[in-house]
Design a protein that fits this description.
There is one protein chain. The strands form 3 sheets. Strands 1, 2, 7, 8, 10, 11 and 12 form a 7-stranded antiparallel β-sheet that branches. The chain folds into 2 domains: about 190 residues, no CATH class; about 90 residues, no CATH class. By secondary structure, it is α+β, with helices and mostly antiparallel strands. The radius of gyration is 27 Å and the shape is elongated. Helices cover about 20% and strands about 35% of the residues. The protein is built from 6 helices and 14 strands.
């Protein structure tokens, strides 16, 4: 009899605990679980050539190595297909505002996400290419899982294709994973001079793991040297000329042609007539955009004035590690 009473009292205690437990606590397991998981490397993809679906064109006065976010809206259709559209920064933030306020800027009939992506150099001499993607908005039905397959591509020219040199996959899931502001980051090794791009295959899945759609985005392309340093930015004020990046990442080193004081003075005379200025030429070097020891010539189209300090501390060291 005592045993029965003890069992009844324990049952009442358990029932009381369940009654007093807040309803919201039922999602604690999901909240405390991993919202982002690293699924490992995709070694089978290394060496593959992939197309860059979103390639920007630059004028001679623009810097193609400026670090920037790229914005995409990925729509997942009911038939399992998907469509990715590159959008402006303004549209991306409009989508984000619409997602928060349930306004009609982005139609709720569309199932999809807005993401920003970027690739940047690591710290100085770190030999890294750092990737970041952020979910900016979610519209329509929310997926239960998002897989981010990140492919680091490297090419010898600024191209519409790239060759995969590293590939990893992350997955976002749960309350904390599939939400606005969730980010995926990865630091890739970058030890070879090249034009680097990260191509992301983003796959949405439902609660059963069924694929709702997969589509691809890509970051801008940046030029890094063997130390992982970004090609430096420089614009000549008088001519508005931008220091051109190397046309290739695999120029061979060679014996440099001669560059004399007379050659420098002739260029300065020509430059002063062509682009009137008040430069103190004792404070400026004349830089060969394709260095002479990498096959560069003394043609004026290959020359640009650069402040001595910038030339010796930034530009020349970059090419030493080319």
């Amino acid at each position: 009899m005592k045993k029965i009473k003890w069992l009844l009292s324990m049952f009442m205690v358990v029932a009381l605990i369940l009654t007093l437990t807040p309803v919201g606590s039922t999602i604690n397991a999901e909240e405390n679980g991993p919202s982002i998981q690293f699924l490992g490397e995709n070694k089978e993809d290394i060496g593959q050539e992939v197309k860059l679906n979103f390639v920007k064109e630059y004028t001679e006065y623009e810097n193609p190595n400026e670090i920037e976010d790229r914005y995409y809206f990925i729509e997942y259709k009911e038939n399992g297909s998907s469509v990715t559209t590159e959008i402006s920064e303004q549209q991306a933030f409009q989508n984000a505002a619409a997602s928060e306020t349930s306004s009609a800027v982005t139609p709720s009939s569309l199932n999809g996400i807005t993401v920003s992506t970027r690739v940047d150099a690591g710290a100085k001499d770190a030999r890294k290419a750092n990737f970041k993607a952020t979910i900016m908005s979610i519209t329509g039905s929310k997926p239960n899982k998002l897989d981010f397959k990140l492919n680091l591509g490297r090419s010898m020219t600024r191209s519409t294709t790239t060759n995969i040199v590293s590939s990893v996959t992350y997955t976002l899931s749960g309350v904390l994973g599939i939400k606005v502001g969730a980010t995926v980051t990865h630091s890739f090794d970058a030890t070879v001079t090249g034009f680097y791009t990260v191509v992301s295959d983003i796959t949405a899945k439902n609660i059963l793991g069924v694929v709702l759609g997969t589509d691809t985005t890509n970051t801008s392309t940046i030029l890094l040297n063997t130390k992982g340093n970004l090609y430096p930015i420089y614009t000549d004020v008088a001519s508005a000329k931008v220091m051109k990046e190397p046309a290739r990442a695999d120029w061979a080193r060679t014996t440099p042609i001669s560059w004399t004081t007379s050659d420098r003075n002739k260029y300065i005379d020509w430059y002063n007539k062509e682009y009137p200025n008040n430069y103190d030429w004792t404070l400026n070097h004349v830089h060969h955009m394709r260095p002479r020891n990498l096959g560069g010539t003394n043609d004026y189209s290959n020359l640009i004035p650069i402040l001595n300090t910038h030339h010796t501390s930034v530009v020349s060291p970059w090419f030493v590690a080319y």
